[in-house]
Fold these 2 entries.
Entry 1:
Amino acid sequence: MNFKKPRGTRDILPNEMEARRKVEGSLRTTFERFGYREVQTPTFENLDLITAKSGEEINDHLYTFEDKSNRSLTLRPELSAPTIRLFVNELRNKPKPRKLYYIENCFRYERPQKGRYREFWQAGVELIGSCRPEAEAEVIALADTCLNNLGLTDYNLSIGHLGVIRALLSIHEVGDGDQNLIISFLDKGETKGLDEFSLPQGAVEDLKKITSLKGKGATVLKKAREILSENDSQELEDFSKLLELLKVSGVDNYIVDLGIARGLDYYTGMVFEVRAKGLGAQDQICGGGTYSLVKLFGGGDVPSCGFAFGFDRLIMALESKIGITVDKGLPKVFVVPETLKVLNRAINITSVLRKQISCDIELMGRNIDKSLSYANSENISYVIIISEGVKGDGVILKNMRTGEQRRVKVKEVPDAIG
Ligand code: HAM
């Protein structure tokens, strides 16, 4: 029988795994420097938690199943709803903000293509307790800092504001339910569909005008103010403050795009996306914004904002732009017993060395020549030959790069290989 992996999933081989762990390490360090602490939630959740507010885009792509007690469950398609559930269940009485991060797998039954998988990883943060401009600016600055620390430069950061769009719709007396539908239309780029919507006169026109605003912050804000005319919009003022704070945080490589709608229903205010150049159709490597879920989950009127990197896409962007430096391979040292008579000594020396360094040993019973050629093909830097002729605690250390061979004591090996 020849088993294949399920459609839309991937096997990740050692070189890529090593690179992924490095990227993960860099993200963890940056998240923690900004005061976030890691959490883990279950791989599956009660279906209701996810369908409560995620929206059509997600609900159509769920891996849903019933357990043996007929509970409706689903594999998590994202981590904001689970993290907010965790907050409401476990942390709601702690001082705010709570700053939580995760690096976990998610599942969406989507049509697989390059950069779009049925199992993928997200590395994200949720700042729970504030959606003030300073909180939103910090969240965007964190995403930008993560990319800088990873050495990725070829990306576009776009920032929008659904609060401003919602304010405009409210001026035209469009209710919350219709606002969500309209925003999901916008997310799919279906502005034509808006004509068929029974919106009050002028609303569609204003909506098209405001969502086509794109460019430098000051210019977009000026035009948006004109569209909202004499109606004061706190959202617009907050947005303006957020952009001012980004500047003092050293983030200026963005454009403002009031056309960003995002595919999830829970967003309420600032929204942003990062697209990496050269990734093709699935180029969005990060998405986030301000959203409201705590109240819906019974935790009171607590705002939150955050984002998630599509970890797999981030890896692809790093591969094609700067190249991921993969370690030469582990281990650095390979122990070879010259004959079976010295096998016990070889094993003993290996276990001593493993207390300090990464060290492997010949396990296939090959002769010296074959062992050396194996070490060569595995990019191993040093071979230690255990020979009957070398007594006591001496071994032969062979440098595989230069071919140089010399006698050293076992305890000298870690220093000798540098
Ligand atoms: P999202 O935009 O649905 O937002 O997903 C975040 C990122 O996950 C996307 O930008 C993309 O890079 C990646 N992604 C999504 N679907 C796939 C897929 N099928 N294959 C590969 N990568 C994918 C959220 O999930 C929100 N929870 C983000 C957030 C956190 N907002 C506030 N806090």
Note: Residues 14-33 form the longest helix (20 residues).
Entry 2:
Amino acid sequence: VDEFDLIHRYFDRDTGDADVVVGVGDDGAVLCPAAGRHLVSVVDTSVENVHFPESLPAADIGFRSVAVNLSDLAAMGSRPRWMLLALTLPKVDADWLSEFSEGLYAAADEHRVALAGGDTTHGGTLVVSVHMIGDVDPQMAMRRDAAMPGDEVWLTGSTGDAAAGLRLFQEGSVAGDAAAFLVGRFRRPRARVAIGQKLARFANAAIDVSDGLFADAHKLAQSSSVALSLHLERIPLSPALCKLFADDAEVLSLTGGDDYELLFTAPADSAAEIQRIADAEAVPATRIGQVSTGIGATCYRDGNPVSFDDPGYRHFHE
Ligand code: ADP
Ligand code: MG
């Protein structure tokens, strides 16, 4: 197959979206934004053996590539709308492409995100880059730089699970419910899309946890020029993580990447509303700290500061 057959065969489904005025097949996509909304634009690239192991099934690679972008939009409080896919392939393998596109569309269809175009190239390593566009009420975007002293720090779900799951996947220890849960957290991240849009009314600032809870908390604190406390005894740990990684659970929860949970800050007087939203969405939300004047994230155990420093995953870092 040549490039054009490939695109037509795997990436040219009917979008069913009247706001995709021109989709796959022309030089550019023409998209019709909703009146009065701002657009939010994100891009996330996944490189084989950097972001995922080469043994990961193609459908999971497709699913994750979309989910990580959904998560960035969720952290902005944005509704996802459209995406473009830039794909670099070492070879053309029909089975692989078919599974990859199934996974990609599964993640996109769940949130009615239309694939409106892309780019396909031949290259030495598998690289999947998704550019996603969402929209948001102009007053509502949750920015990283907007945390306020006095805010409480919240976390959806639990962290450390995906990093533990990746370890298990690479070791091939995937038997049992607890392992299946953790491995699933790496293979099929569930971006917090619906709750992200609802939280935007109450939260001042948000970031999605992709590089590790501590590192991302530190980023949020630095962007907002505030101090952010993380109370270790309050950080939720999943039963599966406690069961299979009893000794490392806390460190994994602070440093493990790829969880795609939301870390957000909100005034204390919106706690009841936030809890109501979390209950309605059936997403756990836990208050794990506070924002105060100062700079950077600090961990506390039983009220005492604990020295902890983790820069998170950094490309190009020696
Ligand atoms: P051009 O030569 O004008 O850059 P391309 O040959 O790269 O166009 O792409 C042809 C059409 O197919 C364009 O509409 C582009 O958006 C779309 N496309 C290319 N690759 C993909 C892909 N992987 N997924 C979705 N659409 C794609
Ligand atoms: Mg062209």
Note: The pocket of magnesium ion (ligand 2) is lined by residues 27 (CB under 6 Å).
